[in-house]
């Protein structure tokens, strides 16, 4: 139980309402003492600045809003989350177990009259673990409950645990209507949402640490970016040199995932079948009682008949749900068999093709060392097989690369445009300024953290220079001048990196009408004026 819940346990209604009003319904900036600074949306002070550098072994906490939904999408999201869970019920904010029908009936009382009003959020709280035992599952569930009670007091929500995947997580469907304040959750600005979710992650990480799970809320820019990038490059090289083994590992992961899902699905089907059998026994008793009422002409038989009819409908729904889960179970079983079959075929193909070619090359080199005694056609065949072996290995490597996605490479290198890089660079610059302008005691403790952010700033600047060289070459040499986005990015980069705009010089040298370039730049400035303002926030 959280401190706030303990505090209100013995309060009167008037005291409780005054205390409740102090809880902000959305994140707002507060005037903090000089020992506090907001860095990357989090409050930093002299007591916790050193812990930011000492928590190297702590994992990153994950909280995300994946959808803002109307009433139909809310029902679909709840139904989907239930089909993937091992239980057939939802848990509400009071800890009660409800069916989907009961929850929707309760929530529909507060729905707006307009059909497409956004009624709910779909939140996901996740931890970076392969699998959780019962104690850790209880810790995760209690941490989510505490975080929700601290930040969404007065809101109804439903929780569904998914523990069948490599990263266990809890789906929370939040009703945006506050039944105490009688208004819906609303934010004035996007920055308010950003700070609110940072605060939410911070609370979730505190709750997890209090229950023995070592997690923290860390912005990606607070990590050592160069070290992370070099690590990703080493992993890429390892993949390239060991492609066959990596593909085998991917198939093994597929099989393990399907086996886990099959096991959980089997448990859920057993649970549903037990519920259905109990309902059948109850239905048989009701039929027997109805026969007695009819025989004795008891007036209660009409009410009992109505109850029996409703019970029959519930049995039918339960039967359909059970059949649906059995179909899903059969689909998962088929996928597992198919994956295992393809894995075996992959082994055979790789061993047969690669080993046959390698054996041929080894035998040839023993028979004809340095091609001595080999005819011209035999030497040509040797090089054909050697080239074929190299091509088959490269093809396997290309196939594997489609599965691998690396956050740092995508975020900070070739595939990232300079608009994003400049935004990251400016964010680091602003947070460094706040730390440097702090009081002496906070600044002294934050010195190692400042050095880390300065390294990240230099790394992003280096990536920006590389990206600029690439797009400048594309614009000038490959005649991409008609690509409006690339032209905008190049002009923006010249301003950001303080480079000479060679595109303008090219227009002048070719004696194009002077208005042509000026008009292009005017269109660019008008279209990006809003974007510049958002980047300055």
UniProtKB/TrEMBL annotation:
InterPro entries: Endonuclease_MobA/VirD2. Residues 96-189 form the MobA/VirD2-like nuclease domain. The keyword Coiled coil applies. Keywords: Coiled coil. It comes from the Bacteria. Pfam families: Relaxase. Residues 255-299 form a coiled coil. This is MobA/VirD2-like nuclease domain-containing protein. It comes from Campylobacter cuniculorum.
């Amino acid at each position: 139980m959280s401190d706030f819940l303990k505090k209100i346990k013995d309060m009167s209604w008037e005291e409780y309402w005054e205390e409740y009003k102090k809880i902000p319904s959305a994140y707002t900036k507060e005037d903090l003492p000089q020992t506090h600074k907001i860095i990357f949306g989090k409050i930093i002070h002299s007591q916790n600045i050193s812990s930011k550098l000492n928590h190297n072994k702590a994992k990153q906490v994950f909280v995300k809003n994946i959808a803002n939904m109307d009433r139909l999408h809310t029902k679909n999201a709840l139904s989907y989350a239930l089909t993937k869970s091992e239980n057939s019920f939802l848990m509400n904010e009071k800890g009660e177990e409800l069916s989907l029908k009961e929850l929707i009936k309760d929530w529909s009382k507060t729905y707006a009259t307009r059909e497409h009003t956004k009624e709910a959020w779909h939140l996901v709280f996740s931890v970076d673990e392969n699998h959780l035992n019962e104690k850790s599952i209880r810790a995760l569930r209690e941490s989510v409950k505490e975080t929700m009670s601290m930040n969404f007091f007065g809101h109804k929500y439903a929780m569904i645990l998914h523990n069948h995947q490599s990263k266990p997580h809890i789906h929370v469907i939040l009703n945006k209507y506050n039944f105490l304040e009688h208004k819906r959750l609303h934010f004035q600005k996007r920055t308010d949402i950003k700070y609110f979710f940072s605060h939410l992650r911070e609370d979730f990480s505190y709750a997890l640490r209090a229950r023995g799970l070592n997690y923290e809320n860390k912005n990606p820019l607070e990590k050592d970016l160069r070290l992370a990038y070099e690590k990703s490059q080493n992993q890429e090289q390892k993949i390239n040199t060991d492609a066959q083994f990596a593909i085998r590992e991917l198939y093994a992961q597929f099989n393990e995932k399907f086996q886990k899902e099959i096991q959980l699905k089997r448990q859920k089907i057993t649970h549903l079948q037990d519920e259905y059998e109990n309902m059948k026994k109850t239905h048989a008793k009701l039929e027997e009682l109805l026969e007695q009422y009819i025989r004795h002409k008891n007036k209660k038989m009409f009410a009992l008949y109505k109850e029996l009819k409703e019970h029959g409908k519930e049995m039918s729904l339960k039967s359909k749900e059970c059949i649906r889960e059995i179909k899903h179970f059969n689909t998962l079983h088929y996928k597992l068999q198919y994956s295992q079959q393809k894995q075996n075929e992959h082994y055979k193909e790789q061993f047969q093709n690669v080993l046959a070619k390698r054996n041929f090359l080894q035998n040839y080199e023993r028979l004809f060392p340095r091609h001595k005694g080999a005819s011209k056609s035999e030497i040509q065949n040797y090089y054909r097989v050697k080239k074929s072996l190299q091509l088959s290995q490269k093809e396997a490597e290309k196939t594997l690369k489609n599965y691998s996605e690396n956050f740092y490479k995508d975020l900070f290198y070739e595939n990232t445009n300079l608009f994003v890089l400049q935004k990251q660079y400016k964010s680091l610059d602003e947070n460094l300024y706040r730390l440097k302008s702090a009081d002496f005691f906070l600044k002294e403790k934050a010195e190692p953290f400042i050095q880390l952010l300065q390294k990240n700033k230099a790394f992003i600047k280096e990536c920006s220079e590389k990206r600029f060289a690439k797009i400048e070459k594309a614009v000038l040499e490959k005649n991409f001048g008609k690509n409006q986005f690339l032209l905008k990015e190049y002009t923006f980069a010249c301003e950001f990196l303080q480079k000479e705009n060679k595109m303008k010089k090219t227009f002048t040298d070719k004696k194009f009408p002077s208005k042509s370039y000026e008009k292009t730049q005017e269109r660019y400035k008008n279209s990006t004026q809003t974007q510049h303002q958002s980047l300055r926030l």
